Amino acid sequence: MIEVRNLVKYYGTHMAVDHLNFTIKKGQIYGFLGPNGAGKSTTMNIMTGYLGATQGQVFINGHDILSEPYKAKKDIGYLPEQPPLYMDMTVLEYLKFVAALKLIDKSIKSAQLDQVISLVRLGPVKNRLIKNLSKGYRQRVGLAGALIGFPEIIILDEPTVGLDPQQIIEIRQLIRGLAKDHTVILSSHILSEVREVCDHIMIIYQGKLVASDTPENLEQKMQGNETIELLVKGSPEQTGSVIRQLPSILSSQIEDSGEAGCTKALLTVKEQNDIREDIFWTFCKNELPLLRLANTRTTLEDIFLELTSSESSRNNDSTKEDPTDESNL
User: Per-residue confidence at 223, pLDDT binned at 50, 70, 90?
Assistant: First the structure.
């Protein structure tokens, strides 16, 4: 559906997008994940035709967004981080205006507006001025505008930014509902949001695509040696003696737990080797109670931090703030 080829974008001397290549397939929710300034919004603006690229191409269903903008854009619904709403219009007036801009046929416009208003749950406020709505409802209005014409692809830039927890839950539910009939692309720097709603994750850092896969596959690929944390009712000497009886232990660290009569131990175990049951029975046989046995695995947060950590040997100058202060790049 979407193919991005060798995409580059400069702002002056600052490279915001660095030779991006990826493909978006039909029927999934894709998440652009990255820290502020990573290049997520710039990439989305180029994909939707709001910005021109310095180099590279974007194809929407085979149509170049630059040379065939009308054919390409008719398949895209876009919600920017700050929805371009007219505050002195009512919700219905604004959506009629958007429908006119999208050249929706008059014979189906009324029915389509009713369908979009119902889908985004704007019925109770459709005759209210947009300036009098909460931020959550304004996001819904922007989303409704993106849905008019029912494009195949819905692109959402930070759709839950600034919303309260209840509004975030409601917007996430809407996004999941949209995925039944649309391909959805959303950007975020909120890990829990991407993990919650996305089928496929693309991690962008300093304008580069550093990872692209399902959340589950990313976690599996990045999985290294596992760490098991123990809290043992016994002395450090007793705990160390039992640990030496265990197989597959690469290393161990024994320390005071801060709790009287107890010892804390951190065990490094060979990759994908689950020995929790062996640990349990070994300590039981030695009559040392286990008060805690926790297995820690690589999470999306760990992956994100590892892939987006600063590299002292790479582009030291590029990590400095750009003087044009492109904070939303």
Answer: low
CB 94 within 8 A of CB 145: yes
Angle between helices 106-119 and 135-147 (to 10 degrees): 140
User: Rounded to whole angstroms, how far apart are CA atoms 4 and 198?
Assistant: 20
pTM value is 0.72
| Mean pLDDT to the nearest integer, 159-170 | 83
pLDDT tens digits for range 187-196: 887 777 788 8
For residues 31-38, average pLDDT: 87
What is the rounded CA–CA span in Å between residue 258 and residue 270? 28
Structure tokens at 306: 């590892």
Alpha-carbon distance 239 to 255, whole Å? 10
Per-residue confidence at 222, pLDDT binned at 50, 70, 90? low
The beta-carbon contacts of 94-102 under 8 Å, at least 24 apart in sequence, are 94/130, 94/141, 94/145, 95/141, 95/144, 95/145, 95/148, 98/145, 98/148, 99/148, 99/149, 102/74, 102/148, 102/149
Dig out the tokens for 176 from the structure.
């999941």
Question: Which residues are CB-neighbours of 247 under 8 A, at least 6 positions away?
Answer: 275, 278
Q: What's the rounded mean pLDDT across residues 290-306?
A: 77
Taking alpha carbons only, the member of 9, 157, 135, 131 closest to residue 77 is: 157
- pLDDT for 251 equals 85
